[in-house]
Amino acid sequence: MSLESSAGRPRRLLDDPAAMRAFAHPIRLALHELLMRAGATTAAEAGRQVGISQALASYHLRQLAKYGFVEQAAARDDRERPWKATESTQVWDDGESGPEQAAARSLLEQVIAERALSRLVEWQQRRRDEPEPWRGSGGVSNLLVYATPEEFTALAAAIEGLLEPLTARIDDPSARPGGARPVLLTWLSVPLPPTDSGD
SMART domains, alphabetically (predicted)? Predict the structure, then answer.
């Protein structure tokens, strides 16, 4: 299901378990991210960028297209068939889902978290070689807060609002100021069980 953000940018509500499982693949997530960053890209170019063969890139791009995550872009010539991402943002909600959707959501969240941890390790290995302004930018924050479900929902909406001008630059490269570069933000929130004291 397609939605719009507060700024009118397309985003997708993932409520189909089959689509969620299809998206929950490290190569497909990498290809989708590449299309968001690089724009329309052929399978050959995507394969080189992601480090896989053109045939494997073509297969995974077709799987992404089957579930509406990517589509064919306007061809530059008769030989090239570039692909582009359909939406830059996907959201999902487990509110009233059944067991199949809950399992698909868990799988997708696990793959995204594992991929984010892998990217963190890569960052840690190259952080010393980064320009000074960027060295202190990446990393992990670990906070404990007390909140009601309503307060946490409001917090998530407030964060999304703060990020909206930055995420809008995905679709509009001309809006990116000099020195801007892609930054992966993966937000993990884990409601903890109460302690014996009932907090």
Answer: HTH_ARSR
